[in-house]
Amino acid sequence: MKKATFTVLFILVSIISFGQNLDNQFYFRFGYSSPSWKQFGLEEQDWNDLGITSKAGANFELGSIFLLKRVINRNDMALGINVDYLYTVFHNFENEDDVNGGSLGVLRAGSKIGPSLTYSPVDKLEFDVYTKLDCAWATGAVIYYSDMIDDAEDFFLGTVDFGFSTGLNIRYGKLMLGVEFNTISSELESDDYPGVYLQQFVDAEFSDNLGSEKKSKLPCTNFTVGLSF
């Protein structure tokens, strides 16, 4: 019920934003996504105990900033609505010696929307600060060996999960640089065992029985470069 309510609100806000008399700042960007060691409720040492000692990631976003010029009567500042029509992010936790355990890959795709504040101290230079509601349409995770998906032991899938992100953009002309902290949790259900979740497997590694928690925390920090028009 909560997921359905959030989904309806997300769509309504998106529709309303397009009905405003706004200036469109369209952008696309990509970059490095740093998954937190605190994903899945763990610490770095917990990952090391599982044989995983390195992590990396990448992300891509396609979106717009709609400036509400009439809200703040200033030439150098404006409130806005920041919409990411589509984003994808991939994280990889690598087990360099997979004889005793597998590596973990997590792929997520979704959309984001929220308020922003733009400030331009000089011509062509603009700063955007924002916070967004993050709607992950789909999240997939796979435990694999020897960098071969064909050797995957388990697939997990989550749909329509919500979180939040906050960040800063620096734009000069068409160049756009950004940093964003993203926090979201996903219920990743096993493809082979319906009703069993990846978080339960993770919890079981550090206790005597299968955990009861379904949601996996997936915080990360994104560093991006792109173009805006």
Protein described:
This protein has 229 residues and is mostly beta strands. The protein has one domain: Porin, CATH 2.40.160.20. 14% of the residues lie in helices and 59% in strands. The chain has an eight-stranded antiparallel β-barrel with strand order 1-2-3-4-5-6-7-10. A hairpin with a 2-residue loop joins strand 4 and strand 5. The longest helix has 17 residues. About 5% of the residues have low confidence.
In short:
The chain is 14% helix and 59% strand. The chain is mainly beta and 229 residues long.
List the helices and strands and how they pair.
Elements: H1 2-18, E1 23-35, H2 44-49, E2 52-68, E3 77-95, E4 103-122, E5 125-144, E6 154-172, E7 175-187, E8 189-190, H3 198-205, E9 215-217, E10 220-228
Antiparallel strand pairs: 1-2, 1-10, 2-3, 3-4, 4-5, 5-6, 6-7, 6-8, 7-9, 7-10
Low-confidence stretches: 12-22
Within the largest sheet, what's the order of strands?
1-2-3-4-5-6-7-10
Please report the number of helical segments: 3
Query: Outline, from the CA principal axes?
Result: elongated
What structural class results from the helix and strand content? mainly beta
- Label the CATH architecture: Beta Barrel
- Give the strand content: over 45%
The fold-level CATH name is: Porin
Cα-based radius of gyration, to the nearest Å: 20 Å
CATH class annotation: Mainly Beta
Mean pLDDT: 86
Oligomeric organization of the protein chains: single chain
When the domains are counted, the total is: 1
The largest pleated sheet is described as:
8 strands, antiparallel, barrel
First-last Cα distance:
39 Å
Helix content: 10-25%
Element string (H = helix, E = strand): HEHEEEEEEEHEE
